[in-house]
Amino acid sequence: MPGLSMPLTSYIQDAELLPLAEKLQRGERLSFEDGMLLYRSPDLTGIAAMAHSVRLARHGRKAYFVTSRRLSYTNVCYTHCQFCAFQAHQEDPKAYVLSVEDIVRELENPENLGVRELHMTAGHHPKLKIDYFESLFRTIKTHFPDIHLKVFTMVEIDFYARNSGISVEEFLDRCIAAGLESCPGGGAEIFDSEIRKQICVGKKDADTWLKVAELCHQKGLPTNCTMLYGHIEEPHHRVDHLLRLRDLQDRTHGFLAYIPLAYQNEDNELSRTHHILPATGTQDLREIAVARLLLDNIDHIKAYWVMITPGLAQIGLSYGADDLDGTIVSEEIAHQAGAKTPPGLSRQEITRLILDAGFEPVERDNLYNTYPVEP
Q1: How far apart are alpha carbons 328 and 243 in whole angstroms?
Q2: Can you give the pTM of this predicted structure?
Q3: Would you identify the CATH topology of the domain 61-371?
Q4: How deeply is 7 buried, as exposed, middle or buried, from its count of CB atoms within 10 A (0-12, 13-18, 19+)?
Q5: Is 137 helix (H, G, I), strand (E, B) or coil?
Q6: What is the per-residue pLDDT across 211-242, written as a single tens digit (0 to 9) for each?
Q7: Beta-sheet pairing, 223-229 with 148-151
Q8: What are the residue ranges spanned by the domains of the chain?
Q9: Strands (E), the chain
Q10: Would you tell me which of 36, 94, 151, 357 could form a disulfide with 120, CB atoms 3.0–4.6 Å apart?
């Protein structure tokens, strides 16, 4: 569906969706009830057409990607997220903490040549404090000045500030001065308090996540935002989550992109204590489309190939997504929870996915500055 050759309403079979299409054409915002309808309607093709019309109006046929590297500085974590297979206790044989020298040596490997963005998230290690991160960021920027530092979920920021005995404001100020340039959007999971009590024991609540994100934005530090779906949540939890993100974006305009994250149902406690079937392809595509329609003030929606497969992410470009994330090189967290996708993709592979789907590949950095795509 690279382009829409007929009027939007021609693609809609569910009459209940027609008022939503009319709202979109008038430039009106969709409501909570509209969001519930988007999850309830069987007309996924009609929903896709609406989302695709919004995507085309914003970005045309451009599809973005970044040459990126994932790196987790530690897997030690005091929280107990039931959906996570990455976390380790300090005494666990698999526990690790990377030194500043370890990370520099890793980034010097030839596979990282041309990386524009270093994406670092990790566990909540009780022995790491602000001095570790200041040293890490300054050293990375000294050795690799062109690499954009995208580090910390909102809950990591809150934890490491408290662990350092300083305010979140001071923690952010010192990290920004040392080289921090943006933050990814993880750690949000699902905002509903009752669901959080069941899936991420020990992790800070939604208000903390939102307050830290707001503070980042006030300090000029852009972030992404996410939602973890496909576990024990219901559609009304998802709509509530998306609208809370939309409300914050109205105030700060600091979210660069939204990424729907599909729960991986292997090798974690949540899948052992609940019977959770893996998300289907239609559910994955619906999440992309609903996000594009409800998040009218967030410019970019990603189809995160790591969690939904490269092929389905490719289709997601016709369901409202305009971004395939990046090359990544070596992803750990989702794969340890059961993701069967490759740990990374090459520039050429991502470019091929985009071209074969009928879109124009555009290489970007984390701030959506764009670069010519190399053949």
Answers
A1: 29
A2: 0.91
A3: TIM Barrel (3.20.20)
A4: exposed
A5: helix
A6: 999 999 999 999 999 999 988 899 999 999 99
A7: unpaired
A8: 8-54, 61-371
A9: 62-66, 68-71, 80-81, 117-120, 148-151, 200-201, 223-229, 255-262, 300-301, 323-326, 360-364, 370-371
A10: 151
Residues 6+ apart with CB under 8 A from 15: none
- Rounded CA separation 306/300 (Å): 17
What the block records as the tokens of 329 is: 């090189």
DSSP assigned state of 314: H
Strands 255-262 and 223-229: parallel
Q: Are 219 and 167 in contact (CB under 8 A)?
A: no
Query: What are 153's two structure tokens?
Result: 């979920």
| Separation in Å, CA 105 to CA 109, 118, 131, 139, 276 | 7, 14, 20, 11, 40
- The percent of residues in the chain predicted with pLDDT above 90, rounded, is 68
Give the residue carrying structure tokens 């990374």. Answer: 344
Among 21-35, 181-195, 196-210, 312-326, name the one with the lowest average pLDDT: 196-210
DSSP 8-class letter at 27: T
Structure tokens that stand for 238 in this block: 């998802």
**Residue for token digits 């021609």?**
10
**Cα–Cα dist 130/14, whole Å:** 54
The amino acid sitting at 60 is: G
